[in-house]
């Protein structure tokens, strides 16, 4: 199966949560070649299919907040020049307490 087909089958198996079917998939290691680019998906693979020996698991796990901060730093976005950068601040300032 292609990686896309494996990924669709993986999400269907998680969504429908048929224990007997998932045990069958786990015993036969259907998802051992599933390649994902996300630590979150790697954790899901290990959580739902613990018997499967995955060939593609990321061993370096990054804190999601650190990853977002790293992306923000590397993207060099100039927030002050964005049109709607202060939307939340303006909305919070306009909000008046209920009486």
Kindly describe this structure.
The protein is mostly helical and 99 residues long. Helix content is 54%, strand content 0%. The radius of gyration is 21 Å and the shape is elongated. The mean pLDDT is 76.
How many DSSP-defined strands? 0
- By oligomeric state, this entry counts as single chain
What share of residues are in beta strands?
A: under 5%
Question: How would you spell out the order of helices and strands?
Answer: HHHHH
Overall pLDDT score:
76
Bulk shape: elongated
Largest sheet: none
Helical proportion?
40-55%
- Give Rg in angstroms: 21 Å
Separate helix tally: 5
- What separation lies between the terminal Cα atoms? 62 Å
List strands and helices in order, with pairings:
Blueprint: H1 3-16, H2 19-27, H3 39-48, H4 64-75, H5 87-94
């Amino acid at each position: 199966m292609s990686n896309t087909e494996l990924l669709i089958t993986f999400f269907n198996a998680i969504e429908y949560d048929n224990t007997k079917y998932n045990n069958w998939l786990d015993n036969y290691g259907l998802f051992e070649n599933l390649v994902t680019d996300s630590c979150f998906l790697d954790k899901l693979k290990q959580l739902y299919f613990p018997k499967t020996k995955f060939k593609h698991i990321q061993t370096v796990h990054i804190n999601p907040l650190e990853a977002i901060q790293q992306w923000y730093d590397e993207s060099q976005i100039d927030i002050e020049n964005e049109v709607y950068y202060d939307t939340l601040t303006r909305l919070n300032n306009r909000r008046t307490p209920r009486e």
